[in-house]
């Protein structure tokens, strides 16, 4: 049956039964996409998990990309609604963030208890093909604007567009990371964990009177990364960028080779499989993080100066020619579950190493009393998210990033602006993603 003037098939009548079945498909798809990635999950697998055949799913969503888009849009809409409610609930920044994260923690508790449908993480959003990616990126950018609006108030009137963009990116990066970290706690603890996250976002790490910046980064010992480059390191950097952009399955051998303008034969001269290469990419990123943390543990100065220097060095690495680090979100699409567990365990251990440096600062009085695990997870999440800074701060450089991003990451989103006379708040670039 066609629509008016042969415009195409009529949309299915959305009866309560139709809507119930569609929601069941979305719920199943979220779980499969989170487990296998957008490229790794199949319609057949999603259909089977709800007792359907593939053709039944295509009645609701013609292609897997249509289904993935609907899942992403549902998650984005949930964040947008939380931001809208928080904006209407209070006039000042602290109360808005408290409302946003408090409601978000309750939503996560409801999901854990089965009272609310699951939300798809944004780990694999870059794996969407055109035109689906443009649609999802546009929705995410609109939601980003809403979250950015939570940071506009009397205490932040001096902040310009780039400062607000950077701080909104910090807030959302911490929120995305909280979805994974909060599951290690009892659900009745979720509100308390959310309150500690907000406390960190607002007040940062330093005790009263601690100076900014923590230590100069010009000191040679803080240079991170491999000392020698060469073809092998070039492969690792190219693969890291592609996995960050397109996920594990989207970073094909052909694309990695094309990025370097070399043949596939050259690729296989250095690596037996793509899995081996991605494993080395993780190890390279872990090695860089270990360098920074080891120097923070063993270096001179207060805990605040050492924790701050490590965080700044890692953000600088993200924007340098040696970067970026492989994003933690790349773990979501790793096909080998045992490998995924090993990577996740290593990331958790590195976070705990950073937390121990924060404890040093609390002992010597340079870092205020706080939950070191929550604070470490937030800082590591923001370091990780610095790989995407160019989407929100197109002109960001190693020279400018300290004031725009690193300082509010470490001192809180209410710290002074990056420039004395910021430009008026403008609109965002047309596209962005988490």
TrEMBL record:
Tell me which UniProt keywords the record has, alphabetically. DNA-binding, Transcription, Transcription regulation
Asked if the keyword Acyltransferase belongs to this entry, the reply reads: no
**Which PROSITE patterns would you find in this protein's record?**
HTH_TETR_2 (PS50977)
- Gene3D superfamilies given in the database record: Homeodomain-like, Tetracycline Repressor, domain 2
What is the protein name given in its UniProt record? Answer: Transcriptional regulator, TetR family
Q: Which organism is it from?
A: Piscinibacter sakaiensis (Ideonella sakaiensis)
Q: Does the keyword Disulfide bond apply?
A: no
Molecular-function GO terms, alphabetical: DNA-binding transcription factor activity; transcription cis-regulatory region binding
Which residues form the DNA-binding region?
Answer: 42-61, 252-271
Q: Can you tell me where the transmembrane regions are?
A: none
HTH tetR-type domain location is 19-79, 229-289
Per the UniProt entry, the signal peptide is: none
